[in-house]
Amino acid sequence: MRKLFIALQLLLFTGFASSTKILTSTNVFWGTDGGNVFPGVSVPFGMVKLGPEVRAGWQPTSGYRSDEPIVGFSHTRTSGTGGAPRYGNFLIVPQIDSMRLKELFKYTKLNEAGYPGYYTVTLKDKNSYIKAELTASQKVGYHRYTFTKKYSQTNALNANILIDVSNTLTRLTNNKPGTYWTDGYVKIVSSTELQASITCEGGWGGLNPYTVYCYMEFDKPFTKAQLWRDGEFINRKELATTNPEKLLKRFGAAVTFAGLSGMEVNCKVGLSFLSFEAAMLNLRSENNKSFEDALSTAENLWLEKLNKIQIKGGSVVAQQLFRSALRNTMLMPTNVTGEVPGWNPNVPHYWDYYCIWDIFRATMPLYTLIWPDKQREFIQNLLEIYKQRGYLPDAWIAGDYAQIQGGSNADVVLADAVVKKLGGFDPRLALDATLKNAEIQSDNPNLKGRYVNDYQKYGYVLPETTKGTVSRTLEYAYNDYCIAQIAKSLKESLLTEKYTRQSLRVFNLFHPEHKMFWAKDSVGNWMPDFSPVSKRKDHWNDPYFYEGGSQIYSTYLPHAMQTLIAKHGGNAEYIKYLDNLFDSGVFGIENEPEFLIPYQYIYAGDYPSTARRVHEILTKVFQPGTAGIPGQDDAGSMSAWYVWSAMGFFPVAGQDLYLIGTPLFEETTIQLENKKQLRISAKNVSSKNIYVTGATLNGRKLNRAWFRHSEIAKGGKLVFIMSDKPNDWGKENLPYSL
After folding, report:
1. Domain segments of the chain: what residues?
2. Predicted TM-score (pTM) of this structure
3. Strands 400-401, 91-96: pairing kind
4. Which of 11, 33, 93, 115 could cysteine-pair with 162, CB 3.0–4.6 Å?
5. Whole-angstrom distance, CA of residue 652 vs CA of residue 705
6. pLDDT tens digits along 517-527
7. In three state form, how does the secondary structure of 56-123 look?
């Protein structure tokens, strides 16, 4: 580990990393500022997400900003998400000598560094220094603190560990927190052990209350152990408390270890959403692993996942961004299998789909290609939610439904798995679940974002019914197409025909004058206030389009692009439409509805424009550093776009289709299922040679700028011939369209 850490320091100071140093070429701080990426430690999809916490005016959902001082280290997080934050449970605050209870002290930080599975920072307070090191397993957080005093008359010190059980990541609104605790408990169990629990609710998506338990074990006996509440010590060994006013009341425990400067204290924290006993068993199941043992295991788990895609050539920056992006796609959703009351422990269960609207386009298709077993688990989880709770979720947070952002996009996830023959789930159950989404309006208030009745009656959602009416209608149309694909796989011809036909009704909202989609009222009249861009700065509250205006959303017909192009007057006119999106500044890759737009030139026979636009985004919009991701990472979604595009192709989710862009690397090797490999070779690729001018797939000429999943699912070799000047490659044999 020491050699790895030295290599990490070289990376941080020089920006150089060998392609063989997979962990050290992965920057866990990439995208933390603005992108809200979590920089701390976890294993892939781990339940414990242990990392540094700050206090900012707008508290980021990751708990971290690079320009803010650290207050401590907590164990639960999301990554890349927006809105009001959740989690931040069991904050650990190391202190030297004096014990601060009244308020969270903000430490100056030194030597902050990390890689997947490891994080370190030195906290400075006057002449005192605390070196923090963190690692994690699936359900246990590992802490190692080294306490040092300089310029002191004596080497003696008290190493203190404050445990804030009541902590949450929050932001005050009208003097009340957006997320808060309601019930709590803490107990000093022995001279080395504590246990605690907290019930929390609030944050983006709904109240969604949950209770999390921890069992905490130190490597040496306490010199002193105390409980505290509201800034004062209390003379008890056990405390149960409530917070009915939902205020920022604080309570917890504090332990002290007397020693000398340079003293090291280790701590393990087992988590569970079931009980204290389960948290203790999770801790004990680690078989008394040391910090180094746990770190080695975490490193190996990350290496196994990151090695699924191996890259050669390209710039040092591109290699680092690629590794960092790939890591970001494995932080969420959170594996809580066997840890949630009332759920079958033998069926995979995941929290924090935040949201499927974000991850269905790029992130989940990536899982299907390189981690198919994981994608099968996600789908089994979604179908189990349907079986137990009645509907597929769009967002599933802390064990309950949360806000629906657009359509029924679990439909797309299931269709994608069906057309790519992923297997591992019941397609008949998938059809039943998607049909219910389409045909039965839910009375669950957390699912009120599906406006089935309007859509069935009018073919679109009425403006007086809700916000984002046109974008919802566009998404419902593609959901219909996806239902048709599932029905087709089951030879349900009547359902296939019905939902295919229904998916094209959306063109009733295509405005022939503006060449964009717009809203109609209940008698079919156009709404009078047409605007090509969002009418509000808070575009999530736009009356017609959710998080994007008509210009952006009017491209979202993945199943009927040729019909859309024909309505524009042909290829040349649609190319002009796309060019205007880019050249006018309306297009920005920072939001998911834009993901396919740079690739849509291919449908109009203009592959070179796709290569040019994609390359510009990859090399100019995505940048190194903490602010290097354009917009919030949204549970790895932006990162997934980068991963796909840097490899040279991009999925059309819900279809057996990939569109070819422009690769950044000379060679990319993807480890597929059953020990198969897909090798992508880009001959003569460089910063100038960005155009594919010829290609072969498994030795045969590929004259189209797309290919099917079925053509690569069993491995093979894809060869691109790259040039600085485009030709007619990709102009003919255009992708499928209804």
Report:
1. 2-304, 308-723
2. 0.96
3. unpaired
4. 93
5. 13
6. 999 999 999 99
7. CCCCCCCCCCCCCCEEEEECCCCCCCCCCCCCCCCEEEEEECCCCCCCCCCEEEEEEEEECCEEEEEE
